[in-house]
Design a protein that fits this description.
CATH class of the largest domain: Alpha Beta
Shape: globular
Distance between the termini: 45 Å
Number of strands: 4
Strand content: 5-15%
Order of helices and strands: HHEHHEHHEHEHHHH
Number of domains: 2
Keywords: Flavoprotein, FMN, NADP, Oxidoreductase
Enzyme class: oxidoreductase
Domain Nitroreductase: 9-163
Number of helices: 11
EC number: 1.6.99.-
GO molecular function, one term: oxidoreductase activity
Radius of gyration: 20 Å
Length: 245
């Protein structure tokens, strides 16, 4: 296994960070590396906001689920899907831009996820740890106001970034054959494999928590499908200019 494959399979979410700052210029190098991510039609429809103001960090912590590491990490970044820059570029060619298309939302969100994952991999190659913060979508309007996000821009997720202060185990992933399929969608063996994976995940949670957590992968899916998850997001996206036409 080469070093890149080994690094990718060693990823853990880090939720405890030292107080060591990043060396001067390292974040800029990581973002430059992240910009090498693939982008649909080269639109590069994202912006990354570095949150250095401690008051804003505290406010974002409150708005994103009171996750302490938002304040503790050396860096906190907010990744935004950004179609404003692209719309203005198109308008400069003399056309009247068509906005609010579902494809524009998809492209901007996918571009944002790709650049963020590139940054995560670059950061881990430098000995840093990261954890994504989907909680920024808990209160997206308040975060838009705090970060002065204009129309056609929305916060997709945050990322804590810094030097790890703990060494958690790698969380087991789904069996390869459940996600890699040959020629067509065949899930006939998935129920048995998912049962086996649930048993593996239950052992993992038991070991990680010293026996204090009894759960598995299937049980962890229940909250996503047992109610309306972030029902405010559709109205918020419409308000920001992503009309889903």
């Amino acid at each position: 296994m080469n070093a890149v494959l080994e690094q990718l399979q060693s990823h853990r979410s880090i939720r405890k960070f030292t107080d060591q700052p990043l060396p001067q210029g390292l974040l800029e190098k990581l973002v430059a590396a992240a910009q090498g991510a693939s982008s649909s039609n080269h639109v590069q429809a994202y912006s990354i906001i570095r949150i250095s103001d401690r008051r804003n960090r505290a406010l974002l912590k409150s708005l994103a689920g009171e996750q302490a590491y938002i304040e503790q990490a050396a860096e906190f970044l907010v990744f935004c899907a950004d179609m404003k820059r692209n719309t203005e570029a198109a308008a400069r060619t003399g056309i009247e831009p068509t906005m609010g298309m579902t494809e524009q939302l998809l492209v901007a969100t996918i571009d944002t996820a790709l650049v963020a994952q590139n940054l995560a991999i670059a950061a881990e190659s430098e000995g840093l740890g990261i954890v994504y913060i989907g909680g920024v979508r808990n209160n997206p309007e308040a975060i838009c106001e705090l970060l002065k996000l204009p129309q056609n821009v929305y916060p997709v997720f945050g990322m804590c970034l810094g030097y790890p202060a703990h060494n958690p185990e790698v969380k087991p992933r789904l069996p390869l054959v459940t996600v890699l399929k040959q020629d067509y969608y065949d899930d006939q063996h998935d129920p048995v494999l998912i049962d086996q994976y649930d048993t593996e995940m239950e052992r993992y949670y038991q070991a990680r928590t010293g026996g204090n957590k009894t759960s598995n992968w299937s049980q962890s899916m229940a909250p996503m499908f047992s109610g309306k998850l972030r029902p405010h997001m559709r109205e918020f996206l419409l308000k920001q200019g992503f009309e889903l036409k």
